[in-house]
Protein backbone atom coordinates (compact mmCIF):
# COMPACT_ATOMS: atom_id res chain seq x y z
CA UNK A 1 0.00 0.00 0.00
CA UNK A 2 1.28 3.46 -0.96
CA UNK A 3 1.13 5.76 2.06
CA UNK A 4 2.15 9.26 3.07
CA UNK A 5 2.77 12.39 1.03
CA UNK A 6 2.10 11.72 -2.65
CA UNK A 7 2.88 14.74 -4.79
CA UNK A 8 0.53 15.60 -7.64
CA UNK A 9 3.54 16.82 -9.56
CA UNK A 10 3.51 19.82 -11.89
CA UNK A 11 4.52 19.27 -15.51
CA UNK A 12 7.48 21.54 -16.42
CA UNK A 13 7.20 23.36 -19.75
CA UNK A 14 9.24 25.70 -21.94
CA UNK A 15 8.11 29.17 -23.00
CA UNK A 16 6.70 27.73 -26.25
CA UNK A 17 4.54 25.27 -24.30
CA UNK A 18 6.62 22.20 -25.08
CA UNK A 19 7.52 19.73 -22.34
CA UNK A 20 10.68 20.41 -20.32
CA UNK A 21 11.75 16.86 -19.59
CA UNK A 22 15.15 17.85 -18.18
CA UNK A 23 13.42 20.00 -15.56
CA UNK A 24 11.05 17.10 -14.81
CA UNK A 25 14.01 14.86 -14.08
CA UNK A 26 15.50 17.42 -11.68
CA UNK A 27 12.15 17.87 -9.98
CA UNK A 28 11.78 14.14 -9.39
CA UNK A 29 15.26 13.98 -7.84
CA UNK A 30 14.30 16.89 -5.59
CA UNK A 31 11.20 15.03 -4.39
CA UNK A 32 13.06 11.80 -3.74
CA UNK A 33 15.72 13.70 -1.78
CA UNK A 34 13.01 15.51 0.19
CA UNK A 35 11.26 12.32 1.32
CA UNK A 36 8.16 12.49 -0.88
CA UNK A 37 6.45 9.09 -0.67
CA UNK A 38 4.92 8.84 -4.15
CA UNK A 39 4.31 10.75 -7.38
CA UNK A 40 1.12 11.25 -9.34
CA UNK A 41 2.12 12.00 -12.92
CA UNK A 42 -0.20 14.01 -15.22
CA UNK A 43 -2.99 14.55 -12.76
CA UNK A 44 -4.94 17.80 -12.56
CA UNK A 45 -1.87 19.59 -11.19
CA UNK A 46 0.15 18.17 -14.08
CA UNK A 47 -2.13 19.95 -16.58
CA UNK A 48 -3.41 16.67 -17.99
CA UNK A 49 -6.35 18.48 -19.59
CA UNK A 50 -4.10 20.22 -22.12
CA UNK A 51 -1.60 17.45 -22.88
CA UNK A 52 -1.92 15.36 -26.04
CA UNK A 53 -1.99 11.59 -25.65
CA UNK A 54 1.60 11.36 -26.89
CA UNK A 55 2.71 13.97 -24.35
CA UNK A 56 0.72 12.20 -21.65
CA UNK A 57 2.59 8.95 -22.34
CA UNK A 58 5.94 10.75 -22.60
CA UNK A 59 5.62 12.43 -19.20
CA UNK A 60 4.57 9.18 -17.52
CA UNK A 61 7.37 7.23 -19.19
CA UNK A 62 10.06 9.76 -18.24
CA UNK A 63 8.73 9.94 -14.66
CA UNK A 64 8.93 6.15 -14.33
CA UNK A 65 12.44 6.13 -15.80
CA UNK A 66 13.67 8.87 -13.47
CA UNK A 67 12.03 7.38 -10.39
CA UNK A 68 13.74 4.08 -11.26
CA UNK A 69 11.81 2.12 -8.65
CA UNK A 70 12.90 4.41 -5.80
CA UNK A 71 9.42 5.91 -5.38
CA UNK A 72 5.99 4.70 -6.58
CA UNK A 73 4.58 6.37 -9.69
CA UNK A 74 0.81 6.69 -10.09
CA UNK A 75 -0.31 7.69 -13.58
CA UNK A 76 -3.33 9.92 -14.08
CA UNK A 77 -5.41 8.12 -16.71
CA UNK A 78 -8.97 9.30 -16.16
CA UNK A 79 -11.36 10.66 -18.77
CA UNK A 80 -15.06 11.29 -19.28
CA UNK A 81 -14.84 8.83 -22.18
CA UNK A 82 -14.61 5.26 -20.91
CA UNK A 83 -12.75 4.17 -24.04
CA UNK A 84 -10.20 6.96 -23.68
CA UNK A 85 -9.67 6.19 -19.99
CA UNK A 86 -9.26 2.53 -20.87
CA UNK A 87 -6.66 3.34 -23.55
CA UNK A 88 -4.72 5.67 -21.23
CA UNK A 89 -4.79 3.12 -18.39
CA UNK A 90 -3.62 0.34 -20.66
CA UNK A 91 -0.74 2.51 -21.91
CA UNK A 92 0.32 3.43 -18.35
CA UNK A 93 0.30 -0.24 -17.40
CA UNK A 94 2.51 -1.08 -20.39
CA UNK A 95 4.90 1.76 -19.46
CA UNK A 96 5.33 0.28 -15.97
CA UNK A 97 3.36 2.59 -13.69
CA UNK A 98 2.74 1.27 -10.19
CA UNK A 99 -0.90 2.36 -10.20
CA UNK A 100 -3.36 4.59 -12.05
CA UNK A 101 -5.55 7.43 -10.79
CA UNK A 102 -8.94 7.64 -12.51
CA UNK A 103 -11.10 10.71 -12.08
CA UNK A 104 -14.89 10.48 -11.96
CA UNK A 105 -16.14 11.17 -15.51
CA UNK A 106 -16.62 14.89 -15.89
CA UNK A 107 -19.00 17.06 -17.94
CA UNK A 108 -21.37 14.31 -19.17
CA UNK A 109 -22.70 13.71 -15.59
CA UNK A 110 -23.29 9.93 -15.52
CA UNK A 111 -25.56 8.20 -13.02
CA UNK A 112 -24.10 6.28 -10.09
CA UNK A 113 -24.60 3.05 -12.04
CA UNK A 114 -22.88 4.60 -15.04
CA UNK A 115 -19.89 5.51 -12.87
CA UNK A 116 -19.82 2.03 -11.39
CA UNK A 117 -19.82 0.39 -14.82
CA UNK A 118 -17.16 2.84 -16.08
CA UNK A 119 -14.69 2.00 -13.31
CA UNK A 120 -15.59 -1.69 -13.25
CA UNK A 121 -14.88 -2.11 -16.97
CA UNK A 122 -11.48 -0.41 -16.74
CA UNK A 123 -10.49 -2.42 -13.66
CA UNK A 124 -11.49 -5.71 -15.26
CA UNK A 125 -9.76 -4.83 -18.54
CA UNK A 126 -6.35 -3.66 -17.24
CA UNK A 127 -4.54 -5.60 -14.47
CA UNK A 128 -3.00 -2.61 -12.72
CA UNK A 129 -3.78 -1.16 -9.29
CA UNK A 130 -6.35 1.63 -9.68
CA UNK A 131 -7.32 4.54 -7.44
CA UNK A 132 -10.64 6.31 -7.86
CA UNK A 133 -10.63 10.12 -7.81
CA UNK A 134 -13.73 11.95 -6.61
CA UNK A 135 -13.51 15.72 -7.11
CA UNK A 136 -17.08 17.03 -7.60
CA UNK A 137 -15.89 20.64 -7.55
CA UNK A 138 -14.22 20.05 -10.91
CA UNK A 139 -16.30 17.27 -12.47
CA UNK A 140 -19.87 18.25 -11.48
CA UNK A 141 -20.33 14.54 -10.66
CA UNK A 142 -20.08 13.06 -7.19
CA UNK A 143 -19.24 9.41 -6.58
CA UNK A 144 -21.52 8.39 -3.70
CA UNK A 145 -20.07 6.44 -0.80
CA UNK A 146 -22.37 3.54 -1.66
CA UNK A 147 -20.91 3.36 -5.17
CA UNK A 148 -17.35 3.65 -3.87
CA UNK A 149 -18.05 0.79 -1.43
CA UNK A 150 -19.27 -1.41 -4.29
CA UNK A 151 -16.13 -0.60 -6.28
CA UNK A 152 -13.85 -1.23 -3.28
CA UNK A 153 -14.62 -4.96 -3.58
CA UNK A 154 -13.07 -5.17 -7.06
CA UNK A 155 -9.61 -6.62 -6.47
CA UNK A 156 -7.45 -4.09 -8.30
CA UNK A 157 -9.39 -1.00 -7.23
CA UNK A 158 -7.17 -0.28 -4.25
CA UNK A 159 -8.26 3.13 -3.05
CA UNK A 160 -9.87 6.52 -3.55
CA UNK A 161 -8.63 10.09 -3.66
CA UNK A 162 -11.34 12.02 -1.80
CA UNK A 163 -11.33 15.69 -2.77
CA UNK A 164 -14.71 16.52 -1.23
CA UNK A 165 -13.09 18.06 1.90
CA UNK A 166 -15.88 16.34 3.89
CA UNK A 167 -13.88 14.56 6.58
CA UNK A 168 -16.92 12.99 8.26
CA UNK A 169 -18.01 11.51 4.95
CA UNK A 170 -14.47 10.24 4.43
CA UNK A 171 -14.48 8.70 7.90
CA UNK A 172 -17.68 6.81 7.12
CA UNK A 173 -16.20 5.50 3.88
CA UNK A 174 -13.08 4.27 5.67
CA UNK A 175 -15.25 2.43 8.18
CA UNK A 176 -17.27 0.70 5.45
CA UNK A 177 -14.53 -0.35 3.03
CA UNK A 178 -12.04 -3.25 3.30
CA UNK A 179 -8.84 -2.73 5.30
CA UNK A 180 -6.75 -3.00 2.13
CA UNK A 181 -8.73 -0.21 0.41
CA UNK A 182 -6.87 3.07 0.98
CA UNK A 183 -8.47 6.47 1.37
CA UNK A 184 -6.27 9.38 0.31
CA UNK A 185 -7.11 13.02 0.83
CA UNK A 186 -7.33 15.24 -2.22
CA UNK A 187 -7.65 18.46 -0.23
CA UNK A 188 -4.50 19.70 1.50
CA UNK A 189 -6.39 21.82 4.04
CA UNK A 190 -8.25 18.79 5.46
CA UNK A 191 -5.67 16.09 4.69
CA UNK A 192 -4.38 15.77 8.26
CA UNK A 193 -7.87 15.23 9.64
CA UNK A 194 -8.64 12.48 7.13
CA UNK A 195 -5.35 10.71 7.85
CA UNK A 196 -5.96 10.87 11.60
CA UNK A 197 -9.36 9.30 10.85
CA UNK A 198 -7.68 6.35 9.14
CA UNK A 199 -6.68 7.72 5.73
CA UNK A 200 -3.42 6.42 4.30
CA UNK A 201 -2.03 9.63 2.87
CA UNK A 202 -2.69 12.61 0.67
CA UNK A 203 -2.30 13.31 -3.04
CA UNK A 204 -1.03 16.80 -2.55
CA UNK A 205 -0.54 20.12 -4.30
CA UNK A 206 1.27 21.56 -1.27
CA UNK A 207 3.89 18.81 -1.60
CA UNK A 208 5.10 20.52 -4.78
CA UNK A 209 6.33 23.50 -2.81
CA UNK A 210 7.05 22.10 0.68
CA UNK A 211 7.82 18.40 0.11
CA UNK A 212 9.91 17.73 3.20
CA UNK A 213 7.44 19.29 5.61
CA UNK A 214 4.50 17.54 3.95
CA UNK A 215 6.29 14.20 4.22
CA UNK A 216 6.92 14.79 7.92
CA UNK A 217 3.33 15.86 8.60
CA UNK A 218 1.85 12.92 6.69
CA UNK A 219 4.16 10.43 8.38
CA UNK A 220 3.02 11.67 11.77
CA UNK A 221 -0.67 11.68 10.82
CA UNK A 222 -0.66 8.21 9.28
CA UNK A 223 1.14 6.93 12.39
CA UNK A 224 -1.60 8.46 14.57
CA UNK A 225 0.68 11.03 16.24
CA UNK A 226 -1.95 13.76 16.40
CA UNK A 227 0.17 16.19 18.45
CA UNK A 228 3.10 16.23 16.02
CA UNK A 229 0.86 16.15 12.95
CA UNK A 230 -1.08 19.19 14.20
CA UNK A 231 2.09 21.07 15.07
CA UNK A 232 3.45 20.54 11.56
CA UNK A 233 0.13 21.19 9.85
CA UNK A 234 -0.33 24.47 11.71
CA UNK A 235 2.90 25.61 10.04
CA UNK A 236 1.61 24.42 6.66
CA UNK A 237 -1.85 26.04 6.86
CA UNK A 238 -0.79 29.31 5.16
CA UNK A 239 0.84 27.27 2.39
CA UNK A 240 -2.29 25.17 1.86
CA UNK A 241 -4.18 28.44 1.44
CA UNK A 242 -1.62 30.07 -0.84
CA UNK A 243 -1.37 27.24 -3.36
CA UNK A 244 -5.09 27.61 -4.07
CA UNK A 245 -5.27 31.41 -4.18
CA UNK A 246 -5.76 31.00 -7.94
CA UNK A 247 -6.65 27.89 -9.93
CA UNK A 248 -4.31 24.95 -9.39
CA UNK A 249 -1.53 24.62 -10.60
CA UNK A 250 -1.00 28.36 -11.19
CA UNK A 251 0.36 29.21 -7.69
CA UNK A 252 2.31 25.95 -7.32
CA UNK A 253 4.11 26.47 -10.61
CA UNK A 254 5.00 30.03 -9.66
CA UNK A 255 6.55 28.87 -6.38
CA UNK A 256 8.44 25.94 -7.90
CA UNK A 257 9.80 28.34 -10.54
CA UNK A 258 10.84 30.79 -7.80
CA UNK A 259 12.64 27.89 -6.13
CA UNK A 260 14.60 27.42 -9.36
CA UNK A 261 13.40 23.98 -10.45
CA UNK A 262 11.23 24.92 -13.46
CA UNK A 263 10.24 27.83 -15.68
CA UNK A 264 6.95 29.50 -14.78
CA UNK A 265 5.19 28.33 -17.94
CA UNK A 266 1.62 27.03 -18.30
CA UNK A 267 -0.67 26.30 -21.21
CA UNK A 268 -3.67 28.40 -22.08
CA UNK A 269 -6.29 28.87 -20.84
CA UNK A 270 -4.19 29.02 -17.65
CA UNK A 271 -2.04 32.11 -17.14
CA UNK A 272 0.86 32.75 -14.72
CA UNK A 273 0.08 33.89 -11.18
CA UNK A 274 -1.38 37.40 -11.01
CA UNK A 275 1.12 40.03 -9.92
CA UNK A 276 -1.05 41.34 -7.11
CA UNK A 277 -0.91 38.04 -5.17
CA UNK A 278 2.83 37.41 -5.53
CA UNK A 279 3.69 38.92 -2.17
CA UNK A 280 0.93 37.01 -0.36
CA UNK A 281 2.19 33.71 -1.75
CA UNK A 282 5.83 34.63 -1.16
CA UNK A 283 5.11 35.47 2.50
CA UNK A 284 3.40 32.11 3.07
CA UNK A 285 6.36 30.26 1.54
CA UNK A 286 8.92 32.26 3.53
CA UNK A 287 7.02 31.30 6.68
CA UNK A 288 8.00 27.66 6.21
CA UNK A 289 11.42 28.37 4.75
CA UNK A 290 10.83 27.19 1.19
CA UNK A 291 11.48 30.61 -0.40
Short description:
The protein has twelve helices and eight strands. The protein is an alpha/beta fold and 291 residues long.
Please characterize this protein's 3D structure:
The chain has helices at 21-34, 53-67, 82-95, 112-125, 136-139, 145-151, 167-176, 191-196, 211-222, 226-242, 250-258, 278-287, and strands spanning 4-8, 38-41, 73-76, 99-103, 129-134, 157-162, 182-185, 201-204. The model has no long low-confidence stretch (mean pLDDT 98). It has one domain: Aldolase class I (TIM Barrel), CATH 3.20.20.70. It starts with a strand and ends with a helix. Helix 3 links the parallel strand 3 (73-76) and strand 4 (99-103). By secondary structure, the protein is an alpha/beta fold. Helix 10 packs antiparallel against helix 12 (278-287). It is globular, with a radius of gyration of 18 Å. It has an eight-stranded parallel beta barrel with strand order 1-2-3-4-5-6-7-8, surrounded by four helices.
Ranges where pLDDT stays below 50 over 5 or more residues in a row are none
| CATH architecture field | Alpha-Beta Barrel
What's the gyration radius in Å?
18 Å
Q: How would you sum up the global shape?
A: globular
Largest sheet: 8 strands, parallel, barrel
Strand order of the largest sheet: 1-2-3-4-5-6-7-8
What is the mean pLDDT? 98
Figure out the total of helices: 12
The CATH homologous superfamily is called: Aldolase class I
Structural class: alpha/beta
Helix content: 40-55%
Kindly estimate the percentage of residues that lie in beta strands according to DSSP.
5-15%
Termini separation comes to 33 Å
Order of helices and strands: EHEHEHEHEHHEHEHEHHHH
CATH class category: Alpha Beta
Number of separate strands: 8
Number of domains: 1
CATH names the topology as: TIM Barrel
Amino acid sequence: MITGSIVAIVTPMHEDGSLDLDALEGLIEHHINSGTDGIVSVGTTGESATLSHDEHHTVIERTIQCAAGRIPVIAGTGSNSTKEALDLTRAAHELGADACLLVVPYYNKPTQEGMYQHFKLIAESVPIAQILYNVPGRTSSDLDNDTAIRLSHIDNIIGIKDATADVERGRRLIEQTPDDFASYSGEDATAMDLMLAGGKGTISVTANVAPKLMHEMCSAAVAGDARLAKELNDRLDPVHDAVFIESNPIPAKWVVAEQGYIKNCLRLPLLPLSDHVHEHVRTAMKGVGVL
